[in-house]
Specification:
- The complex is a heterodimer of chains A (about 500) and B (about 170).
- In chain A, about 75% of the residues lie in helices and about 0% in strands.
- Chain A is mostly helical and about 500 residues long.
- Chain A has a two-stranded antiparallel sheet.
- In chain A, a hairpin with a 6-residue loop joins strand 1 and strand 2 (about 190).
- In chain A, helix 4 packs antiparallel against helix 12, helix 8 (about 205-225) crosses helix 18 and helix 8 (about 205-225) packs antiparallel against helix 19 (about 435-455).
- By secondary structure, chain B is an all-alpha fold.
- Chain B has helices at about 1-40, 45-75, 85-105, 110-120, 130-150, 160-165.
- The longest helix of chain B has about 35 residues, at about 1-40.
- The chains are: A mainly alpha (about 500), B mainly alpha (about 170).
- At the A-B interface, helix 7, strand 2, helix 8, helix 17 and helix 18 of A face helix 1, helix 2, helix 3, helix 4 and helix 5 of B.
């Protein structure tokens, strides 16, 4: 234990250098800006920044990338709260309650909660990286294809269960899964559902789908309202950003969400998106007033934001302790290690202890930056809501189009975004789950590969592969419960109404 | 009327999804035939076929009861149901499509202020000074962020437009 503290103290000493410290602050702000702009993400920020690390020392490069990522995940929550447009899929669950809160004049509180929860989630992940990295990494290693399949399936079932209609939720998720099938098959290498278009060989990217379904459909909905003379009430900004009484009330919610985020985040490939939806679902399940979820409740912002930042921080756990990247961002950081001729893994703590120690210190600073930049910046950012809609929505459309273009530097992604703008508008007005479709696209590849791998491993007894392994069996049972519970409730209420 | 519209949209959505699924299924059969000749590993069509079957099944589960309900509602309805056309949304979509289409020929930088102005005009704004200044400032922000910071190769257009756009790079 003393070793850990002295190591982190050395890390803090390393970043006390003004140049290093200011670089971490700048990297955190850069990450936040990338998170705020629709279409740009923390992962994209890392990708763009990696060439600059060539000239830096290993410690500096890895530290800046880690800080940028930690702060970047938070940025997307701001647009989710203010405009119902998640900066990244992991912020999609924040829209459910963040946006209704902003519409009811509580944008300041919603943003304050998102800021505090994000920082808290990140700090929990940093602490778990500091104390439990090797132990948690072993837990992650016990997850095989059936467990990963079960986890992704649970994520989808949870989103389906959150909607008003189960059949519409299932259909939305299935459409997302079908969209994820477009392109080269991971099993045989054959081109599927490309209809002879070479551009479809690489599949349909989820960012343009997400931008179209969430952002452009929101623009269309607002245009319809403006044209029909339905003016939105002017948003009034009042109240404190965060109150201690509120934080204390949600102490168990924070702990639960952080635990979900850390466990899911450290599993390679699972990611912060599943964590945020699961955490939202758990917050609703444990709440004394579950019926208020989705109408604008602060707990609905705190849960996903704590979990997604905890998950993004936890992706570094398998990277540092086993050398396995937990997600795309961790893979980029792994690339930065390799550029400098280092291989992360258990030996890293002995051969180059200054790297994990300094990264830990930088993650603390990055999470504090979320609070500082968030609280100061949010005061001004919420004023965006006062800008007339006829100005803000054309500007949002421009950034969405350019954001979609920036994903792959091609116009195809922009057309995909526009088409999904129309589809999203239909879904929004008819009670389909946009989040379910987006999650289906995001998880489609993982679900397919893990399903096929399980069927190959357990060729003779597939049922045993999925259901008789303790972790996958439990998760699958939970998935079916969360899928069929709303159906059971609907049937029960129908019976009551008939009686 | 609200329930009628919901049922009608459910039926339309189910029908569209079933047709799309069948189109996808037909395409997958060609892939399966190709794999049977050339690929030794597991078929890549297994998973999408499973998804398609589930889509058709769920669409039927939603579509058939909605169709039955729709027929019942039609018999009892006194008002004639109408299709509502959202002119505003259609205009917004056309402006966005024109923006993306023309960006290829005129270049993103030159077309952006015109797009923003047209969109604001479509939203019934007539404060011209504000509209022009917002359009230009947003374009400046786009140039700084996407070209100067991110080095994203936005379409430059053709001919004289390309020469003008290149001045910003």
């Amino acid at each position: 234990m003393a070793d850990i503290f002295s190591g982190v103290a050395q890390g803090f000493a390393a970043i006390s250098d003004p140049v290093v410290f200011l670089s971490i602050v700048a990297a955190s702000l850069f990450g936040i800006v990338f998170g705020v702009i629709p279409g740009l993400s923390a992962v994209m920020a890392l990708t763009l920044f990696i060439p600059f690390t060539f000239q830096m020392s290993t410690v500096m490069g890895v530290v800046l990338l880690s800080a940028m990522y930690a702060a970047g995940v938070f940025g997307g929550s701001m647009t989710a709260v203010l405009f119902n447009i998640p900066g990244a899929p992991e912020n999609a669950a924040t829209c459910f309650d963040g946006y209704p809160l902003a519409q009811s004049g509580k944008a300041t509180q919603a943003l304050g909660c998102a800021i505090f929860s994000s920082a808290l989630g990140g700090l929990f992940a940093t602490l778990s990286l500091m104390f439990f990295a090797p132990m948690l990494a072993n837990v992650a290693l016990s997850f095989g294809p059936p467990e990963f399949f079960a986890l992704c399936f649970l994520g989808l079932c949870v989103v389906i269960g959150l909607g008003s209609s189960v059949s519409k939720g299932v259909l939305s998720a299935l459409v997302g899964l079908l969209l994820a099938c477009v392109g080269v098959s991971p099993m045989s290498g054959a081109a599927r559902l490309t209809f002879g278009f070479p551009i479809l060989m690489s599949g349909i990217r989820y960012i343009p789908i997400m931008l179209g379904a969430f952002a452009i459909s929101e623009v269309f909905t607002r245009v319809i309202d403006i044209k029909q003379g339905r003016e939105y009430e002017k948003v009034t900004l009042s109240g404190k950003m965060m109150e201690w009484a509120e934080i204390l009330r949600m102490k168990w919610l924070y702990l639960r969400s952080a635990a979900i985020g850390i466990i899911i985040g450290m599993l390679p490939g699972a990611g912060a998106t599943i964590a945020s939806f699961l955490s939202y679902n758990e917050a609703q399940r444990w709440s004394k007033y579950p019926e208020k979820f989705g109408t604008g409740i602060i707990d609905g912002v705190a849960a996903p934001e704590t979990a997604n930042n905890a998950a993004s921080g936890a992706t570094l756990i398998p990277l540092f302790s086993l050398g396995i990247p937990g997600g795309p961002a961790a893979a980029i950081i792994l690339g930065a290690f390799e550029i400098h001729g280092l291989t992360p893994g258990p030996l890293l703590f002995f051969t180059n202890p200054e790297i994990p120690n300094t990264v830990l210190a930088a993650l603390f600073i990055a999470n504090l930056m979320i609070i500082v930049a968030g609280f100061y910046g949010a005061k001004y950012l919420v004023r965006v809501l006062m800008v007339p809609q006829y100005i803000i929505f054309p500007i949002i459309s421009t950034f969405c189009i350019l954001g979609a273009f920036a994903v792959g530097n091609n116009m195809f992604d922009v057309w995909v975004m526009l088409i999904f703008g129309l589809i999203g508008t239909f879904m929004r007005t008819n009670g389909y789950s946009i989040a379910g479709m987006v999650l289906g696209v995001v998880l489609g590849f993982l679900l397919e590969t893990n399903f096929i791998q399980t069927t190959v491993i357990f060729e003779k007894n597939i049922f045993a592969g999925f259901f008789l392994r303790p972790i996958s069996g439990t998760i699958l049972v939970l998935s079916f419960i969360s899928l069929f519970m709303p159906v059971y409730k609907q049937l029960k209420s129908l019976k009551k109404a008939k009686a | 009327m609200k329930e009628y519209k919901e049922m009608r949209n459910n039926v339309i959505a189910s029908f569209v999804l079933i047709v799309l699924s069948l189109v996808c299924f037909t395409q997958l059969q060609k892939v399966a035939a190709f794999e049977a000749k050339n690929v030794q590993s597991l078929s890549g069509t297994f998973w999408p076929t499973l998804v398609i079957i589930l889509i058709v099944f769920t669409s039927l589960c939603m579509g058939i009861p909605s169709l039955v309900k729709l027929m019942q509602l039609r018999k009892t309805m006194t008002e004639k149901p109408t299709f509502s056309f959202n002119f505003g949304m259609a205009m917004a979509f056309i402006i966005l499509v024109l923006y993306v289409f023309l960006a290829k020929y005129v270049g993103f930088i030159l077309i952006t202020p015109f797009f923003l102005f047209a969109f604001m005009y479509m939203l019934d704004t007539r404060r011209y000074l504000l509209m022009v200044s917002c359009s230009l400032l947003t374009t400046v922000a786009v140039v700084v962020l996407f070209i100067k910071v991110l080095y994203i190769p936005l379409p430059l257009g053709i001919g004289i437009f390309k020469s003008i756009n290149l001045l910003f790079f």
